[in-house]
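subagent[fold] <- orchestrator: predict structure for attached chain, return tokens only, no commentary.
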Amino acid sequence: MKTDKNFLGMPVSGDITEGSTRVDQKPIEELAPLFQALVDDPTIVEFGWTQYTPYFNDGDTCDFSVNALWAMTTEDVEWFESGDFDRYYLELDYEHRSLGKIEKEWDSESRKYVNHRYEGPDEGRYDRCQALDRALQSGAFETVLLDTFGDHAMVTVRKTGIEVEHYSHD
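subagent[fold] -> orchestrator:
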């Protein structure tokens, strides 16, 4: 079988099975403005995410990934500290208690979710949080995130610095 592939100048032929379909990595400079927008926001006290390689083996490959961004605003602090809540309740994948939400509806004809209007106090802030969340979960920054914060990590970003804790997951 003839291919256009070569390895160190030598032609490669044969039955080549494609490997990982990992996303091409982007430079950290593309993540920086999205990250800084949340650090500079006066109402965002802290934000973060978990990142890890799953332990289970259900037949699928266990690949490292970054999970949903969570954000705590000045409005969330008292609520968060008063109850039995964890950061899961502040994730951006769902309705956020102080940042708001965008209602989505399944369109069976196009087989896609359709966004409706934003509901909340500050659409710009919501959009900036969502932009960072999309970038983190895109897979395009996994190499730099894994190299910087490690595997099985909970990353918490505050205005004074970044804290990394071991993250235990199932």
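orchestrator: received. Logging for downstream: The chain has a mean pLDDT of 89. Strands lie at 6-7, 10-11, 44-52, 65-66, 70-73, 101-107, 112-119, 153-158, 161-166.
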